[in-house]
Amino acid sequence: MHRCTGAQHVEPAQTDNMTNMPTASAPSFALTEDQVQLRDWVHDFAATVVRPAAADWDEREETPWPILQQAAKIGLYSFEFLHTSFGDETGLTMPLVNEELFWGDAGIGLSVFGTHLASAAIFANGSPEQMLEWIPRCFGTPDEIRLGAFAITEPDAGSDVGSLRTRARRDGDDWLINGTKCFITNGGIADVHVVVATVDPDLGHGGHATFVIDKGTRGLSQGAKHKKLGIRASHTAEVVLENVRVPMEHLLGGHDKLESRMARAAERLKRNSAIDTGDEKGHSGALRTLELSRPTVGAQAIGIARAAYEYALEYATTRTQFGHPIITNQAISFLLADMATEIEAARMLCWHAAWMGRNEQQFDKAQGSMAKLKAGEVANWVTDQAISICGGWGYVRDLPVQRWHRDAKIYTLFEGTREMQRRVIARAISNGASELQ
Ligand SMILES: Cc1cc2nc3c(=O)[nH]c(=O)nc-3n(C[C@H](O)[C@H](O)[C@H](O)COP(=O)(O)OP(=O)(O)OC[C@H]3O[C@@H](n4cnc5c(N)ncnc54)[C@H](O)[C@@H]3O)c2cc1C
Q: What is the DSSP string of 37-65?
């Protein structure tokens, strides 16, 4: 099967005269030897372990524990792997490995990397001590695998996360948490739940607090498991919190940080006499965190798109109609040309945004959101076209293209819907002039 792996070289990077190193304003997308090896290592796992099991786990709609175990055994599912990937100064490692794994299968990919959501939330909100304690606990060991879940979405607070109802109240030295979360990846089966709750609903985002909650904590339970269109190997469920009691140390960032953030939000509220929508300057940190993670999510979508494109290309060269392979029809070959072009374009946006994040560049046009938006749209379009190229066979479940199309859809929904991405971009390019409704 033809492979359309990451670009090897794009542009000679500008270099610093003294060090001959790429300057911060000139990314180089020429992969290093280490990156090529890492990409090929993940690709091998995706091709030999993940892809062959994908249809089965999609039908079973269960967490693929044996594959998680294999990923942990080789070190792909581990705190150390996450740590090393984040350490890469080019920023390309996370997009690279995500594209490869999700090329294998997106549902299994999310089962393996879903814990990264919880780790990222701990990283963004926790103190150094809390990071060191809780992030490794999200992964466990190859002999005792653990999972993490990040829970912010609620039945009445999806895109509008400022209107959370899950409530956290002080009770002596503890916190008591009550509410219901929905659509939570690894929800209820995770060993560590990172839960966002509101301490003061009047303050919108400014009144939010993030807690780590251990599995087995009284009052924490799984609600309904959601039956989904795609990424079915990834567990998605409601999480119910009934008088969940956690000690003060489980508040990420600590009490003082929460108090001062709430005081700033109250001050802003007094000045603007409006709820803090989360788009205020004071929340640029939270917005930046989202911009940082979106290129990696986009890379997952590119992995799906590439899988479908490669399959369609192979199919078009071997399927004969009217005495010729269907690729000899310009209608088909041009379509494949467009599919390849769109994938390359989306990948470049993701890599560029990932590089920007790692090199402290300002996301002045919300380039992280642009990358995820484009990649999600490309994945949906490419997988749709792949079904068309495979004709009726593309529609039946014997072939994987229909699964890729079902999987791709989530990339217009989670981690910010396509509309919310456009809203963020519109606001960035109009310098805030775009109306927020
Ligand atoms: C499989 C899956 C896994 C998920 N995993 C997690 C997880 O691990 N943790 C977690 O916390 N959440 C998770 N989510 C939740 C996901 O992030 C939300 O579904 C998403 O944010 C959208 O929220 P919503 O579903 O309530 O849609 P809504 O916010 O109700 O949106 C409905 C529609 O209205 C549009 N819309 C809303 N407001 C505006 C506006 N101002 N302008 C224009 N259009 C607007 C939206 O774009 C969308 O098209 C997951 C969801 C799914 C399906």
A: HHHHHHHHHIIIIIHHHHHHHHHHTS--H
Helix or strand (DSSP H, E) at 68: helix 65-73
Per-10-residue mean pLDDT, the chain, length 437: 42 45 72 96 98 98 98 97 91 97 98 96 95 97 97 96 95 97 98 97 93 97 98 98 98 95 91 55 64 95 98 98 98 98 98 94 95 98 98 97 98 97 95 65
Containing structural domain, residue 177: 148-272
CA of 325 to the centre of ligand 1 (A): 42
Domain C-terminal end among 252, 272, 292: 272
Paired residues of 420 in beta bridges: none
CA-to-CA distance for 85 and 170, rounded, in angstroms?
A: 37
* Number of domains within the chain: 2
Query: Is 423 near ligand 1, meaning CB less than 6 Å away?
Result: yes
- CATH number for the domain that contains residue 259: 2.40.110.10
Dihedral angle sign, alpha carbons of residues 363, 364, 369, 370: negative
Map residue 131 onto helix, strand or coil: helix
Is any atom of ligand 1 closer than 6 Å to the C-beta of 417?
yes
* Lookup: tokens for 156: 């009445």
Q: CA dist 276 to 58, 62, 162, 163, 256, Å?
A: 41, 39, 8, 10, 20
Residues with a catalytic annotation lie at 415
